[in-house]
Amino acid sequence: MKKFWIKTLAMMTLAVTAYGQTELVEQVDHPVDYAKPLMGTDSDYSLSNGNVYPAIAMPWGMNFWTPQTGKMGDGWAYMYDATKIKGFKQTHQPSPWMNDYGQFSIMPITGKPVFKEEERQSWFSHKAETVTPYYYSVYLADHDVTTEITPTERAARFRFTFPDTDSAFVVLDAFDRGSYVKVLPEERKIIGYTTRNSGGVPDNFRNYFVVEFDKAFTFTKTFKDDALQDALEAEANHAGAVIGFKTTKGEIVNAKVASSFISYEQAALNLQEIGGHDFDALKELGRKTWDEQLGRIKVSGGTQDQMETFYSCLYRSLLFPRKFFEYDADGNVVHYSPYNGEVLPGYMFTDTGFWDTFRSLFPFLNLMYPELNAQMQEGLANAYKESGWLPEWASPGLRNVMVGNNSASVVADAFLKYEGDYDYDIETLYEAVIHGANNAGPLTAVGRAGAEYYKELGYVPYDVGINENAARTLEYAYDDFTIYQLAKALDKPKEEVELYKQRSLNYKKLFDPETKLMRGKNQDGEFMAPFNPFKWGDAFTEGNSWHYTWSVFHDVQGLIDLMGGREDFVAQLDKVFSLPPVFDDSYYGGVIHEIREMQIANMGQYAHGNQPIQHMIYLYNYAGEPWKAQHWVRETMNRMYMPTPDGYCGDEDNGQTSAWYVFSAMGFYPVCPGTDQYVIGAPLFKQVTLSLQNGEEVVINAPENSAQNRYIDALKVNGKSYSKNWLSHKELMKGAQLDFDMSAKPNKKRGTSKNDVPFSLSNE
């Protein structure tokens, strides 16, 4: 009898577990509850599962906050497997590779008034940690203090719950490389500035901060480098302050903090964002803000994991580029220029790399947040006026990272999607993209490195000392296509329009018919040799030829023709998944994390953890086998994304990898920004509703969707049968209903006609 009950109990447990895995969430009232800021935080230098930190912030906020487990200056500010917290940092870091700027930290302690990181740090546990986009709480075991944070865009509230002690302290660490603090006991306030940065700033760069407490100080000291002192003021390489109180058990001390890149006075103005809200009211306001923004896309009919993954990715898609502007005393938009150091009127955004984010993050903003993206375009015009160049990687000013001239795509796509709907200086931006397309910049990642070679030969040669030359050539050709599209829309002279159309065909110059792959080419017109298509770097950027060959976003038909037709093209696509994950890392002298992430994913040469190949799955739609795109899109979503600390398969990269998931889960993807089209994949949920900014709705129904039913059997758009493998942006903007019939078996007839393929320049 005993064995019977044990066996029955085991079967019941299995049934509940299985049911729990497949039980679907039919309604989401508070999408923010599904967003997991810890997704992707279990990363390190050698292997990225996201390489993100929990950003406690408002959407696109100027300042983020994060618990700091890493040492001062370490780009890996928060690592999930860490056991100690050193402080709570105001951060502007877009990625560990770019590192931070304008950072400082706050840390409550008890016992001795210590201030060094290794002395003040405390053990903590994720079991006593609450992490949401708008609220963070953790118990600091060594100090018996609970710390809570809730932010606004430029300010935040802290709430410290102390034990019964006469030795309760708060350390304000302004970090090294030049900082200043001043304690104002009569005002229960600390002011100061930090200059710490990682480049891309003018000489006068400072982040000014103000911290106000609601309890009088019984202890006041400052520190200079390694020494604590009685003076209320400190200016040094590394300055900070320690203030203290006597507290009773469970006593709460509140602090309000804000900062500004402009001045102390502006920091005080920014503090007014908190208004009269106490901690709980501000927390609730933050929750409501995130619910409103995340709720613009409502999904239902997915598993708990799928819902959490979707809203976690959507949360990451709403953080960058950050607002780098402030409001003056008269309510005017002003910004400190990270390009020339002046305080100027108008918008400014930063902390994004266009090599990553032109692909899906900016198209996502164009789809769902066009008003905000119009402000971003104003900010880009200001960046050009203030620096003479459009940024390709801004953090906060020009940084010398990555390749390409993809600002052209970002500018063109925004204008082409909403031609004339938003009033910003498109003529200045057109001037900027033409300037960038024809000149090498002050940094190799600004303008176009090798511009003269490219204009003369149609490619950047392999043997002239310009690294990653084939990648540059392919991206320049695509960027020229977006300029061609923009020039047409702005009615520029015909010869100018035609010039960029012809330059957009330069990708053909690197196609090697022998291997049917892209290959670096020497100045004399001969292909570089020996050629190893598995060699990472060298002629390519963070990838190999199998990854970059598909970077012909604007003319997939042209690439199909070069490869010998549809069958040969599909065969090459298939090889990406069937080849073993072999690699040649000799260019780097070791295995970089992107290589390792491809190797361990068990998807052959498909390296979803990095950007160059992320669109490749959708290219089956151009060659008459859309069901393969449907298969691999679902496979990638299922295997490469989870709502867990190791939930990404590479660097998240400022919303790009997240926006890929958001688009793909909705059932379509912007393969070629600069066109009106989204290429169809396969929706993940039973229903998705997009609330567009113009008041219209797009409803995506797939009632038969399931783990098995990943293939599109039929599609109706606004009630009419629809066989094409793409959707029109302009048509979606009018409001639309998409009804997908999903099946466990691929429909090998739907979407196979040449009339069904998405846009290619060769078919224009």
TrEMBL record:
<dbReference type="InterPro" id="IPR050883">
    <property type="entry name" value="PNGase"/>
</dbReference>
<dbReference type="Pfam" id="PF07971">
    <property type="entry name" value="Glyco_hydro_92"/>
</dbReference>
<feature type="domain" description="Glycosyl hydrolase family 92 N-terminal">
    <location>
        <begin position="35"/>
        <end position="260"/>
    </location>
</feature>
<dbReference type="InterPro" id="IPR008928">
    <property type="entry name" value="6-hairpin_glycosidase_sf"/>
</dbReference>
<dbReference type="InterPro" id="IPR014718">
    <property type="entry name" value="GH-type_carb-bd"/>
</dbReference>
<dbReference type="InterPro" id="IPR005887">
    <property type="entry name" value="GH92_a_mannosidase_put"/>
</dbReference>
<feature type="domain" description="Glycosyl hydrolase family 92">
    <location>
        <begin position="266"/>
        <end position="743"/>
    </location>
</feature>
<dbReference type="GO" id="GO:0005829">
    <property type="term" value="C:cytosol"/>
</dbReference>
<protein>
    <submittedName>
        <fullName>Alpha-1,2-mannosidase, putative</fullName>
    </submittedName>
</protein>
<comment type="subunit">
    <text>Monomer.</text>
</comment>
<dbReference type="InterPro" id="IPR012939">
    <property type="entry name" value="Glyco_hydro_92"/>
</dbReference>
<dbReference type="InterPro" id="IPR041371">
    <property type="entry name" value="GH92_N"/>
</dbReference>
<dbReference type="GO" id="GO:0005975">
    <property type="term" value="P:carbohydrate metabolic process"/>
</dbReference>
<feature type="region of interest" description="Disordered">
    <location>
        <begin position="743"/>
        <end position="764"/>
    </location>
</feature>
<dbReference type="GO" id="GO:0000224">
    <property type="term" value="F:peptide-N4-(N-acetyl-beta-glucosaminyl)asparagine amidase activity"/>
</dbReference>
<keyword id="KW-0732">Signal</keyword>
<keyword id="KW-0106">Calcium</keyword>
<feature type="signal peptide">
    <location>
        <begin position="1"/>
        <end position="20"/>
    </location>
</feature>
<dbReference type="GO" id="GO:0006516">
    <property type="term" value="P:glycoprotein catabolic process"/>
</dbReference>
<dbReference type="Pfam" id="PF17678">
    <property type="entry name" value="Glyco_hydro_92N"/>
</dbReference>
<dbReference type="GO" id="GO:0030246">
    <property type="term" value="F:carbohydrate binding"/>
</dbReference>
